[in-house]
Amino acid sequence: MTGDLFGEPLATPGQREALGAQACVLRGFAGADVPALLQALERVLQPAPWRHMTTPGGFTMSAAQTNCGPLGWVSDRRGYRYAAWDPLSGQPWPAIPPAFERLARDAAAAAGFQGFEPDACLVNRYVPGARLSLHQDKDETDYEHPIVSVSLGMPAVFLWGGRERADKAARVPLFHGDVVVWGGVDRLRFHGVLPLKPVPHPLLGEQRINLTLRRAG
Ligand code: SIN
Ligand code: FE2
After folding, report:
1. Is the per-residue pLDDT at 26 higher than 80?
2. Ligand 2: centre distance to CA 191 (Å)
3. What does CATH list as the number for 16-214?
4. How many Å apart are CA 133 and CA 36, to the nearest integer?
5. Which of 132, 139, 209 to mutate to test the pocket of ligand 1 (most atoms within 8 A of CB)?
6. Residue nearest to ligand 1 atom 8, measured at CA
7. pLDDT tier at 159 (50, 70, 90 boundaries)?
């Protein structure tokens, strides 16, 4: 399950690693879809470019972000929330590309969650040193739907915690093409990303891109 020095996965694509009763890593699940995902992401970035959001506490997030879908996750001095408009452009967020939607539905089904229809996709971009501190995904209206999280580019160490912030977090290496799905009893598990190491990826260079698909509204 661990990768080699160059960040290439050693796990067999299609391998399913349990992280909890209703959470798992689907190794290499995005594999064949990667070119379509990256092409679609380019089209999302034209109207909705990367930006660094501010936390309610006044810090600038180290990961750059954007969104697609009817709803987008935003953070500023007023708090965290979902919004139908991109605060940068004043326009609705671009639609979720079909390739994103299909992958999310298929990965959710493979993890035991049938009929997942995301209405929000947060896209995170990490460069070396960027991180995401331990948090729960809890700005959504209800927690019935799973979270589907796609990793592309540089490898990262995903922190997989418990239901309380203080619970010990497991360190799960994630590689290009891996998809993590969590829902049900594991829906509110704390999670985060350790500061990225500079391990350039053959396709994406010194960046890691994460697509987080959710049912927010
Ligand atoms: C997130 O929790 O929003 C992103 C997790 C990741 O980048 O893997
Ligand atoms: Fe999250």
Report:
1. yes
2. 6
3. 2.60.120.590
4. 30
5. 132
6. 210
7. very high
Share of the chain above pLDDT 90, in %: 94
CA of 96 to the centre of ligand 2 (A): 18
Q: Is pTM, for the whole model, over 0.90?
A: yes
Q: Has residue 6 got a pLDDT over 80?
A: no
Cβ < 5 A residues, ion ligand 2: 137
Q: In the chain, where are the structural domains located?
A: 16-214
Provide the pLDDT for residue 1. Answer: 41
Task: Tell me how far CA of residue 59 lies from CA of 62, 66, 126, 190, 195, in angstroms.
Answer: 9, 17, 16, 20, 16
Torsion of CA 198, 68, 122, 40, to 10 degrees: -30
Which residues does ligand 1 sit against, CB inside 6 Å?
122, 124, 132, 149, 158, 191, 193, 210, 212
pLDDT score for 9: 54
**Whether the predicted pLDDT of 38 surpasses 80:** yes
C-alpha of residue 134 to centroid of ligand 2, in Å: 8
Q: Please give the number of the atom of ligand 1 that sits closest to the Cα of 212.
A: 3
The residues pairing with 157 across neighbouring beta strands, listed in sequence order, are: 173
Of all atoms in ligand 1, which is nearest to the CA of residue 137?
Answer: 2
Region 149-173: mean pLDDT is 98
Task: Using the mean position of ligand 2's atoms as its centre, give its distance from the Cα of residue 214 in Å.
Answer: 10
For 47-50, the CB contacts below 8 A with 24+ separation are 47/86, 47/89, 47/91, 47/94, 48/72, 48/86, 48/88, 48/89, 48/93, 48/94, 49/88, 50/125
